[in-house]
């Protein structure tokens, strides 16, 4: 079993140290383009995924300073304790990246899946810091929407819960869990396709299994909270939702469970695309739709 090391273990990886709630952690983070261009933050889904799938969006660096990173506990970023895996801490993480790289500057936020929902919450907290928002197949934004969402669930073998309760997981524990998660993802992603086939070709460096478990199987995920929707209405910038026509988070789901809750949002549909294939088979179409919307083009 070989699992790639995380950023604090491998100084050769592009990275950024941040301090959040008193903990100094190392993010796997990469930038593209000129730093004096308008800023675009790109965050992957999951939770647990890395930004490798979203690498086609580095093409936006012709007009943007593109910043991509794996959230703490996911991808190649440092693994963290359970107490650090909260929605509030991830909102603080976004601020930490902004303060370190582009202090005081407005940012364009481009999030996929869980990352899109995270960026919605950040925009509700700090609407004045966000110039525009792009959501690529977000999950439901209300309790009813989350209930209707049925994509990408990893089913761990029975008896695994006792393992996740351990606050003292070693790097070896994390590596073993991440390795197992990678083997389960092709089946979990069946619901993100048109035909229900296994997704075996998703580009990924490493999955954060513990982050996924804590944020989806325990109250720490907090995504069922709807109170932020009121604050979100203070955001008046451009808001684009992009979705394919296949899979659990497809256009129909967005139109019924997401769009009505986000005043002023525009929905763009990419025919034939699914949750993962948007960035692979349909990447040129996706880039074209983004460039049509983004203010720097």
Characterization of the model:
Helix 1 (87-101) packs across helix 2. It contains 9 helices and 8 strands. The chain has 297 residues and is of the alpha/beta class. It has an 8-stranded mixed β-sheet with strand order 1-2-4-3-5-6-7-8, with helices on both faces. The chain has helices spanning 87-101, 114-125, 143-148, 161-164, 171-188, 209-217, 228-232, 251-258, 283-293; strands at residues 15-20, 23-32, 39-43, 65-70, 107-112, 130-136, 239-244, 266-270. The termini are far apart.
How would you summarize what this structure contains?
The chain is an alpha/beta fold. The protein contains nine helices and eight strands.
Layout of SSEs?
Blueprint: E1 15-20, E2 23-32, E3 39-43, E4 65-70, H1 87-101, E5 107-112, H2 114-125, E6 130-136, H3 143-148, H4 161-164, H5 171-188, H6 209-217, H7 228-232, E7 239-244, H8 251-258, E8 266-270, H9 283-293
Parallel strand pairs: 3-4, 3-5, 5-6, 6-7, 7-8
Antiparallel strand pairs: 1-2, 2-4
């Amino acid at each position: 079993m070989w699992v790639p090391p995380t950023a604090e273990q491998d100084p050769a990886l592009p990275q950024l140290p941040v301090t959040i709630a008193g903990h100094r952690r190392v993010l796997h983070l990469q930038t593209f383009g000129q730093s004096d261009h308008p800023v675009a933050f790109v965050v992957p889904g999951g939770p647990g995924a890395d930004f490798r799938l979203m690498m086609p969006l580095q093409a936006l660096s012709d007009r943007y300073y593109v910043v991509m990173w794996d959230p703490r506990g996911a991808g190649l970023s440092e693994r963290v304790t359970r107490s650090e895996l909260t929605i509030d801490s991830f909102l603080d993480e976004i601020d930490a990246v902004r303060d370190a790289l582009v202090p005081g500057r407005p940012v364009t936020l481009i999030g996929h899946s869980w990352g899109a929902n995270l960026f919605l919450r950040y925009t509700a907290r700090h609407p004045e810091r966000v110039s525009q928002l792009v959501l690529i197949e977000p999950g439901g934004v209300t309790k009813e929407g989350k209930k209707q969402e049925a994509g990408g669930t990893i089913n761990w073998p029975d008896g695994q819960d006792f393992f996740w309760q351990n606050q003292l997981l070693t790097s070896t524990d994390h590596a073993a869990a991440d390795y197992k998660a990678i083997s389960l993802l092709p089946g979990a992603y069946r619901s993100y396709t048109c035909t229900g086939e296994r997704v075996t070709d998703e580009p990924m460096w490493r999955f954060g299994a513990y982050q996924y478990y804590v944020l989806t199987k325990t109250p720490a995920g907090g995504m069922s909270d709807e109170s932020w929707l009121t604050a979100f209405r203070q955001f008046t910038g451009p808001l684009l939702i992009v979705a394919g026509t296949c899979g659990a988070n497809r256009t129909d789901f967005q139109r019924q469970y997401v769009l009505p809750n986000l005043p002023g949002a525009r929905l763009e549909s990419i025919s034939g695309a699914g949750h993962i294939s948007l960035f692979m088979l349909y990447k040129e179409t996706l880039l074209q739709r983004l460039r049509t919307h983004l203010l720097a083009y």
